[in-house]
Amino acid sequence: MDTLTQVALGAGVGLAVLGRRIAPRKAALVGGVLGIVPDLDVLVGFDDPIDAFVLHRGASHSLIVQAAVTPLFGEVLMRVFKDLRQRRMATYIAVYLVFATHALLDALTVYGTRLLWPVWTEAVGTGSVFIIDPIYTVPLLVALIWALCLGSWTPRFRTVLTACLAVSTAYLAWGLVAQQIVYGRAAQVLGDPGNGPERMLATPTPFNTLYWKVIAVDDERYVNLYLPVFGSTGSVVAYVHPRGAGLAGCLAGVEALDKLARFSDGFYRIDLHEGEFVVSDLRMGLTPNYVFRFAIAKQSGDGVRPIPPERRDGGRGAPGDLEWLFANLSGELTLRPAEAVAAVADARLSTLAGSSETWAAC
């Protein structure tokens, strides 16, 4: 999640555990600062931009590593705040909960988090909440701002804090429920469950959990569906795009492709543009503006040669996206302008054969 949200969440946890012991203002500041510590792994320098991409949210986000370093941070806090010196256990609990909730929240985004590194190195990412969601963050900010204005703990503030934490947590639970509803609706739209896609992923569109993007990967193509949690899906269309999977054979042995394919869990596309092979992670961003795109090889007269990976700008949005998103959130299902040329009225997979471009051999 974004830094502001992690600060607010850390502050909320710090307040819940330490607010009555060192006063709300101090507890909020301590929790807020600790809340961004796991993300300091971005300061680790990588020569390879793909390594920087796939290795983020590793050791610093591991619940195991966080437990190991908790005493270190706890002892520092006890030396800074004398009111905590006789409360070692509460201090340790506060530190660990701030770290752990940071990692667990990140694991609800689509990017993924290595929660059990180094015992289990696979990333966990449900994709049930967008990386920035004001509906989740605002209640936590209310508690944080209120705490910064308080000189001492009060019963009224305890009630406010409890309500804010309950609302934000309930919102995350709702996201998981909504995601399952969308999976069910997507399966109905795509048609015969016995002839479904190779893999399917549902993630919220920006800043909400009411309107979702579903990616269905099916051999040489991928299909984007945009589905509401509630309301009719009768006018939902499919946006069918070439995936460039056939180009993977041209990149056999290119380590960069192997890394990206594994990290994206197969949700990637390959483009060949002016002799350059570019791999995009389909999970983050909206077609064609994917956030993470990397040039990994070039085509030349003597074949395909790997190049040092370079990140390519995928853009942050397309013209008309905000209007499209607001219209669909209000219940008016409209075409997305950036993908209109790829729209197919009948979204059933069985009707889409041959509807996507097939790449020429390299």
Describe this structure in words.
This protein is of the alpha+beta class. It has two domains: 173 residues, no CATH class; 161 residues, no CATH class. 40% of the residues lie in helices and 17% in strands. It has nine helices and eleven strands. The strands form three sheets. The chain has a five-stranded antiparallel beta sheet. β1 and β2 form a beta hairpin. α1 packs antiparallel against α2 and α1 runs antiparallel to α7. It is globular. The chain starts with a helix and ends in an 18-residue tail after the last strand. The relative contact order is 0.11. The model has no long low-confidence stretch (mean pLDDT 91).
Average residue-wise pLDDT: 91
Number of domains: 2
Strand order of the largest sheet: 1-2-3-4-11
Give the percentage of residues in beta strands: 15-25%
Shape: globular
Unreliable runs = none
- What's the total helix number? 9
Radius of gyration: 23 Å
Largest sheet: 5 strands, antiparallel
**Helix-strand sequence:** HHHHHHHEEEEHEEEEEEHE
**What is the helical fraction, as a range of percent?**
25-40%
The tally of strands reads: 11
Structural class: alpha+beta
First-residue to last-residue Cα separation? 39 Å
